[in-house]
From TrEMBL:
Pfam families: Mt_ATP-synt_D
Organism: Malassezia yamatoensis
Gene Ontology biological process terms, A to Z: proton motive force-driven ATP synthesis
Family according to the record: Belongs to the ATPase d subunit family.
The keyword Ion transport is annotated on this UniProt entry: yes
Entry protein name: ATP synthase subunit d, mitochondrial
Gene Ontology terms for molecular function: proton transmembrane transporter activity
Amino acid sequence: MASKAAVDFSKVLASGLSKQTSAELVSFRKRTDEAKRAVTQLKQLSTSVDFAHYKNVLKNQDVVADAEKLVNNFKPKTYDVAAQTKALHSFETTAVRNLGAAVQITNHCVMSIGMAHVQQAEEAAAKIQTELKDLKETLSNIENARPFDQLTATDVINARPEIAKTIEEMVKKGKWSLPGYEEKFGSRAIQDSLAYLLYSNQRVQIVRKSILCASFASRSRLPRPIEPPFDPSSASYMLLSTPYHARHRSVYRDH
């Protein structure tokens, strides 16, 4: 039989338990001590039965004789617990084996999750590096870019080729203004911008010819003469502010 393990309550109480747990443990220890004291007192008492006393007191001697016979013939019944013990040992072995397998599976899952997180972190880091590279290039372009007032129409159209196509379509349809542009920038700003973009871009020569024909056919649709700050010496200014018979020669002479 295995030896009884004694509990060192002092050591357990000093192990850093919470207040509630310590109070419950102290109460349990008190009840345990009282139970031990009661068992000790009961062991000191006699367990024998004085049948002679009962024979003198009771008139029914047969009852006393039967009771004495039962007590004298009583033998505790023994049980073979080997089968139960074997089953418990088998269960314990299986439980330990299953626990080991569960631990291995858990470790494998944790490692898989960890590897997945590492892979996601690496992908995120690579994406961030790419975005950071793009941001650095953008910042470099911003820092090295020329001031806006130094840009030419050619620079703008080279950066946004769709502007030339849009202007060409507008001129072909006889449109000389953009919806809402005059309300925001004023009536002369669009004239300056349109003339500057049209006649500073060498790739839209055909547009200038269309303007000459359109302006000759419908003089009333031409914009008012452009005033400073637009450069009066430019070909665009001369085109929009001089009569047709004079400007159709000056435009081609300037370009």
